[in-house]
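Why does this matter for the project? Reviewers at the last site visit asked to see concrete outputs rather than summary tables. In response, this paragraph embeds two records directly. Each consists of the residue sequence and, immediately after it, the corresponding structure tokens. Nothing has been edited or filtered.
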Amino acid sequence: MGRWKPDARGRLAKAALELCTERGYERTTVSEIAARAGLTERTFFRHYADKREALFGGEVALREAFVEAVTDAPPSAAPIDALAAGLDVIAGLFAGRREHVRERHALIAANPELQERELIKLASLAAALADALRGRGVAEPAASLTAEAGVAVFKVGFERWIAPDEECELSRVMRDSLDELRALTAGDQHPPSSNVRPADPPASSLRDP
């Protein structure tokens, strides 16, 4: 009998990403994922409902870390500052994992079913953050608006971070994205990190039709 190896859930998630990248999401089976991880199908279904969920195994940990950081922010912190604390915490979860995340992002972008699941993840995150803000005494619609803004900053910052030419750490990219949002909501037409000078033409005129 082979030696028992720990972290079955993590091994299954790793095997799912490897195989779906190598063979394509549609052509990968649960049986193959379990075999790659050195486990049985029965063990797979103890941890995940299907192969799609194996690619979103970190969702709960990310949501819980974000919500906990927002909840634990100082009582005097403004709602957007509480979200900033959450963004800093979850940025740390991705430290040293940029290439892994790029691979997973490319897989999701190539599969409509996974794109739909990603949208569900973001909606769930926004709902949880809104609930945390309401728990801090933030009234509606401010709680929901702030939560949605926080998720937008996370999404935009995340996509910037995995760009091929990006070298900054995720925490820095997240802070820059949040600073741009703050500047825009304050009425500043030229956010600090936008690199747009007053004399330059509008950004929209620089794009192809």
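We now turn to the second protein, recorded in exactly the same manner.
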Amino acid sequence: MTIATRATWKHLPMPAKRQALYLALSFDTDEVECIRRGFIPRDMDDKWSIFVEDDWLYFHRSWTGFCIFAVRLEPAANGVVIREGWASRDPEQYHGSSAAEEQRQIAALIDSLLHSRKG
């Protein structure tokens, strides 16, 4: 099984225009193992490329390589917690929504990543 890295897909850096996000997510050791493998798009229907680097989980749009979200994985007793992150605010790269909607989107993307890795 290939592990996603910055080099496995087109990944541009998080733009300078960004906004802090505050989250409350936690994942156990098994889930962290899946998260750390990331996600490499397989075809045009896969809209995201996701990888971990230096304890940050990055979410890039697969077609453009734009970094839309980044969240910090903090070690915890039985896995990791995510309390903070960033969302792009560059209008040429991303037309964001509310911070609450973006928090839900990040949680859904991680959940999708976990399910795709378990299958």
